[in-house]
Design a protein that fits this description.
The complex is a heterodimer of chains A (314) and B (283). Chain A has helices spanning 57-64, 106-117, 122-132, 148-160, 178-194, 206-210, 230-236, 248-257, 280-289, 304-312, and strands spanning 2-3, 13-24, 31-37, 40-42, 46-51, 72-77, 80-81, 91-94, 166-170, 198-202, 215-220, 223-229, 240-245, 263-267, 270-273, 294-300. Chain A is an alpha/beta fold and 314 residues long. Chain A is elongated and about 80 Å long. By secondary structure, chain B is mostly helical. The model of chain B is unreliable at 58-68 (pLDDT under 50).
Chain lengths: 314, 283
């Protein structure tokens, strides 16, 4: 597993998993939903968990917030083993669909959880959160009459009750309209920046996620194949010159002679050059002068989606 | 623990289904009153000596009611005397009490699973089995509400409906009700186990009806009779009492104590199993 976060020993991780594994079924019929995940979530980070459907994102989140028991491995929340202490109290969770009573209003749903959490003076707190998630005007309308977006907001509101230090949100922007997505994004950024809440979020909308997260965890077939910060990812997705040739070995020798060291032979026909980006014509001329057949040469860049597809495979 | 109980009671009294179930229960109580009124009219008009003779065959002791499942036995009530004690005993004996208790508590428990609200509470860092204890306390509250509805309705009926009705002595009714409640909570614990295990409202309600039709009691008697060759009348009555929760109002203190111990023991066993399921399962 590649990891640029793990190397930094001085960072405080609010959530850390060690060889986290979840196996379903018994004996020869068993299958791994999550396998040996070592995850590191820094305090104050917005950590985006990305992966295909069925990759194991939700199972990882469910284990972290105590809804599922790991088969192997351990979870540390704020440096303490989860399950043996009160660390779960510092988590606010929204896993899969928001758990709300359809026959109750938003306020009553919030009040139920507030009573269970033992929040004193919950009326003000609930009204404050309802305002924060944009549900202050729904009044006594039952949750069954809410749109999916309103239910998602109520789910986030429920997660925010109890003033958590970490929010765990599984697909929170599912079903939201563009305006709703924008509002939720602004809300999460506000919570992260103003209240210093660490956020673990998963979503399929990678473009949206890229506007929000500070760190990524890429999950494939139950394994965390890469942890990367958004800065590092941005560097990786930087603009580059893409050279298509049928002789990349010879081309790379010529490229090195040109004084270019930051390049990468991607496959048997492609080379990516990450420096001297404004000397594209010059590079092309030199390659042709050295008898290299250049099929194409162009200035390209890669988005999160391309990177994700590259790393997880089509 | 208290916070869970407070939350569950808040949820219960805020839910529409609770009031619907209690209304259905009231309708069933009214059915018992109407059936008894009809039997009283028949008996007082001296038209139905045959019906009384039939009634004598349908119950096994002087002051208890063993029907073959959900229903009412107006002639038996009339024969034993229309008073609060016998009417309350009839509503326990005819299984309308247990039917509506189980349906209400099954819906209450399974709603948490079906709408996913359990995810909000199970992640709160307390012992997961607190949720089960809280549900059992909620069941006790439902049972108390049911008793209150039945007693008020019967008192009203005694005053305004029955010509031969008397309130009668409360002595004997209180310990009887207390032991019935413990036995019923033992049965509720069994359903808590089923709901925690299967999380299925449909299955829970089906088994409730199955239970109220006395099929489980019949099976228990059959097993005792055929498999263990236990044929004493006392053993049979005890099995029926514990599996169906139907006691006799005039039971001796010793039998009441034995029933109480059995009720607590069954509650303990079922709750332990339900708590293991709650703590071990994934949500």
């Amino acid at each position: 597993m590649k990891s640029d976060i793990i190397s930094n020993k001085n960072i405080e991780y609010v959530i850390e998993t060690n060889n986290l594994t979840k196996k379903f079924g018994k004996n020869f019929k068993s299958s791994y939903a999550v396998k040996g995940v070592n995850m590191h979530i820094k305090k104050g980070a917005i950590y985006g968990l990305i992966g295909k459907n069925g990759a194991g994102k939700t199972t990882i989140m469910r284990m972290i917030c105590g809804l599922a028991r790991p088969t192997e491995g351990e979870i540390q929340i704020f440096g303490e083993n989860a399950g043996e202490n009160m660390t779960y109290r510092r988590l606010g969770t929204l896993i899969e669909n928001p758990g709300v009573f359809p026959g109750m209003s938003a306020y009553d749903n919030m009040k139920c959880k507030a009573i269970c959490l033992g929040i004193s003076g919950y009326k003000e707190k609930i009204n404050e959160i309802l305002k924060l998630v944009g549900l202050e005007s729904v009044g006594k309308k039952h949750a069954k009459k809410f749109s999916l977006g309103m239910k998602q907001r109520l789910g986030i509101g429920l997660a925010l009750l109890g003033s958590p230090d970490v929010l765990i949100l599984d697909e929170p922007i599912n079903g939201l309209d563009p305006q709703g997505i924008l509002e939720i994004r602004e809300l999460l950024i506000k919570l992260n920046r103003e209240k210093n809440i660490t956020i673990l979020i998963s979503s399929h909308i990678l473009e949206e996620l890229s506007k929000l997260v500070t760190h990524y965890g890429i999950v494939k077939d139950g394994e965390l194949i890469e942890e990367i910060s958004s800065e590092k990812l941005r560097e990786k997705c930087l603009e580059r010159i893409e050279v298509k040739t049928d002789n990349p070995d010879k081309a790379s020798t010529v490229i090195e002679k040109m004084g270019i060291s930051n390049y990468k032979v991607v496959d048997k026909n492609t080379i990516h050059i990450y420096e001297k980006l404004n000397e594209l014509k010059e590079i092309n001329k030199i390659l042709i002068k050295n008898d290299i057949d250049v099929d194409s040469i162009s200035l390209n860049s890669e988005g999160l989606e391309d990177y994700f597809i590259d790393i997880t495979g089509r | 623990m208290l916070k869970y109980i407070k939350m569950d009671l808040y949820k219960l009294f805020k839910s529409k289904f609770f009031y619907v179930c209690m209304l259905v229960f009231l309708v069933l109580i009214i059915f018992v009153i109407v059936d008894t009124k009809w039997a009283e009219r028949e008996v007082l008009s001296d038209k139905s000596q045959i019906s009384i003779a039939e009634a004598e065959e349908t119950h096994y002791a002087d002051d208890t009611f063993y029907t073959s499942g959900i229903g009412s036995d107006g002639f038996a009530i009339v024969e034993l005397g229309i008073n609060l004690k016998n009417l309350v005993n009839a509503s326990y004996g005819s299984n309308i009490m247990v039917l509506m208790l189980l349906i209400t508590i099954v819906i209450f428990i399974c709603n948490d699973f079906s709408c996913g609200y359990i995810k909000n509470t199970i992640t709160i860092p307390r012992y997961k089995w607190y949720t089960n204890i809280s549900k059992l306390v909620t069941a006790a509250v439902i049972l108390m509400v049911q008793n209150l509805i039945a007693i008020i309705a019967y008192l009203w009926a005694i005053k305004y409906c029955f010509r031969s009705g008397v309130v009668g002595s409360f002595k004997g009714l209180i310990p009887y009700l207390a032991v019935e409640m413990v036995l019923y909570l033992g049965i509720t614990a069994f359903f808590l186990l089923i709901c925690d295990w299967t999380q299925s409202k449909a299955l829970g309600i089906s088994v409730s009806v199955f239970y109220a039709c006395q099929l489980i009691g019949t099976m228990a008697v059959f097993i005792l009779y055929k498999v263990f060759d236990l044929k004493t009348e006392k053993a049979m009555k005890m099995v029926i009492s514990v599996t169906q929760g139907n006691l006799m109002v005039g039971m001796s203190n010793t039998v009441l104590k034995e029933s109480l111990v059995l009720g607590i023991a069954s509650m303990f066993v079922y709750m332990t199993l339900a708590n293991i399921i709650v703590c071990k399962r994934d949500y």
